Amino acid sequence: MNENPYAASTTTSASAAASAGGGTNIDALDVSDRWKQYFKAIQANGGLQLPLFKALPKDQRKAAFKQIQPPFASFLLAFVFGLFYYIAKGMWKKGLVLTAIVAAIVIVLGTVLYMVGGDMLAKAVNFLGAAIFGMMAPRDYYAFKVENDTGWLPVRPG
Predict the structure, then answer these.
(1) CA distances, 32 to each of 3, 38, 107 (Å)
(2) What is the model's pTM?
């Protein structure tokens, strides 16, 4: 009963990794085997923040990095279809917010580059939005399927 409520938690990183997925059984999810492999690798490394991956020695990171790479098709489809990919996967809320954020970035950055004389760069900025969708889609899909994150924020605080 004399426990200090302000003491640092004694939770080990292994138990943190076990609880990273919120107890979701990845094998029971309705996704392809490649997605399951990706989800398990993320969960084994402590969740989306990858704290266990970051703690690995440099020589072990290469092998672990190959495991946590998402399916390439997910990047490509999200790059090409953007919001429609998010809608098809059931993440329409994040897709709408991400579309608004990307549109604002592209408009502002494109306008600034055009005004300073970077016409070619201003045109190339349009691909920035597609790249953002491609990079965010696998993380968001993990959060949606494994952590049951159905919120609006594309990046979660904490």
Answers:
(1) 46, 10, 36
(2) 0.78
